[in-house]
Design goal:
Length: about 425
């Protein structure tokens, strides 16, 4: 049993529950994920957008929806010292659309991407954090099935670029606003016969937003939901055709998706296409990513768009399950400077600065150490070469270069340094 003293000491260095310090070596995988994502987003014509972590509360309540779990149960919402109602962003879409709506016409046909921490005060469990990180994109523009297909194709290509295998894309439609009315009315009517058998939350959700009942994880509710006709059956032919076109376009691009009539997504802004990407390695919280077409009204005009967000923590877990580990992306190579004597130490400080300025990974001890100790360190740091300098080399203005890969050694004039870089 822990004594209170030990407990205090260990807690003192822990981040808040459900939040993590992300550090080496794991961070190497994060860097790979972020840099490959950035390259691909730029190739698709997306520009980076960094919005603040804190926004006015209404940015989220108006877009995500008052009846969603995210708004009702999970948001870090509070009043600041000026009594203003604000919240830590639980997701990236609302802030991006708040920004783009403010850019008028230009913002109505824009492509942005983000990589940022998000905050949801959920009960922490494997794969569910209170601070987690998303990479995501938003493309504004009128509904167009090809835009939705391109967005999913980008996402699938991103998974490929990361080397992730074994994920599944599930897709459904939420239809237009008119369709949603028909869906709500019909599902409400059909569920009403089972009202007493639904969980307590769903009995309330029935009148607030029946889609939340379809999304409920409770087994009894799931059994009842399984007896309902597909939502699509209450929608217009146009909406059904819209989804078919998205799926056909993806198939033509060689991308497989699975139609999942029970997929509704937990956010209210969606219209038409919605999708989720799952990976078996994740267990109960098996969704790596979610996305869809939406319409968000924050100013006077509704802003339509399509986008997705992927949870980096869950991508990391899935990559690990595929045998892709952080160590494979550990920094290595470059040059280690070995200094024999105080004068060499000072001269190597200058040389290190030059090399680092050229972008070369370069390290050295900052106090006098034996040759053996310095070589051991060079090995540990996985340097590709060492440059050894002692009195002799300083006098002759030469460098003794040792190549770790083949064990060869050569003496160079200082001006010939470029030949080994
Ligand atoms: P979301 O499904 O709420 O969608 O979140 C997207 C992804 O973020 C999830 O699939 C999951 O990987 C990750 N995620 C969510 N909550 C947590 C958590 N508590 N801990 C760890 N990871 C989590 C959205 O956020 C939408 N904004 C996506 C979108 C963009 N739709 C259109 N544009």
């Amino acid at each position: 049993m822990c004594t209170p003293k030990i407990k205090m000491a260990s807690n003192e260095f822990q981040p808040l529950l459900g939040m993590s310090d992300i550090t080496a070596p794991e961070i190497y995988l994060w860097r790979m994920i972020e840099s490959r994502a950035r390259t691909l987003f730029l190739a698709y014509g997306y520009e980076e957008l960094r919005t603040p972590s804190l926004e006015k509360l209404k940015v989220f309540t108006r877009s995500i929806g008052d009846t969603t779990d995210v708004v009702q149960k999970e948001m870090y919402a509070f009043k600041d010292r000026g009594n203003r109602e604000i919240a830590l962003r639980p997701e990236g879409t609302a802030g991006a659309i708040r920004h783009l709506a403010g850019r008028g016409e230009e913002g109505r046909n824009a492509r942005v991407f983000y990589m940022a921490p998000m905050f949801r005060c959920e009960r922490p469990q494997a794969g569910r954090k209170r601070q987690f990180h998303q990479v995501g994109i938003e493309a504004t523009g009128e509904p167009n099935p090809l835009a939705d297909a391109e967005c999913i194709a980008l996402q699938q290509q991103l998974l490929e670029t990361w080397g992730l295998k074994g994920s599944k894309i599930k897709i459904n439609t939420r239809g237009t606003k008119e369709d949603q009315k028909a869906v709500f009315e019909n599902i409400h009517r059909l569920l009403n016969d089972h009202r007493a058998d639904l969980c307590e939350d769903c009995q309330r959700r029935m009148d607030e937003n029946v889609l939340r009942v379809i999304d409920c994880k409770n087994e009894a509710c799931q059994r009842i939901v399984a007896t309902l006709p597909e939502m699509k059956s209450f929608m217009s032919v146009e909406s059904q055709t819209y989804l078919d076109t998205v799926i056909e376009t993806l198939n033509q691009m060689g991308i497989e998706v699975e139609y999942d009539p029970s997929l509704v997504r937990g956010l209210d802004y969606y219209l038409h296409t919605v999708w989720e990407i799952t990976h078996d390695a994740l267990g109960a919280q098996n969704s790596i990513a979610g996305g869809g077409r939406y319409e968000i009204t924050l100013g006077k005009k509704a802003l339509p768009g399509v986008g997705f967000a992927m949870g980096i923590e869950r991508v990391v877990t899935s990559l690990n399950a595929c045998g892709i580990t952080a160590e494979q992306f550990a920094p290595s190579g470059g040059i280690w400077l070995v200094s024999l004597g105080a004068e060499a130490l000072k001269e190597n400080m200058k040389l290190a600065r030059t090399l680092r300025g050229m972008g070369v990974r370069c390290g050295m001890e900052l106090s006098e150490k034996s040759m053996k100790a310095q070589m051991r360190k060079a090995n540990k740091m996985e340097a590709e070469k060492v440059i050894i300098r002692g009195e002799e080399e300083l006098k002759n203005k030469t460098l003794l270069v040792k190549n770790f890969a083949d064990g060869t050694q050569q003496e160079l004039k200082i001006e010939e340094l470029n030949t080994i870089l």
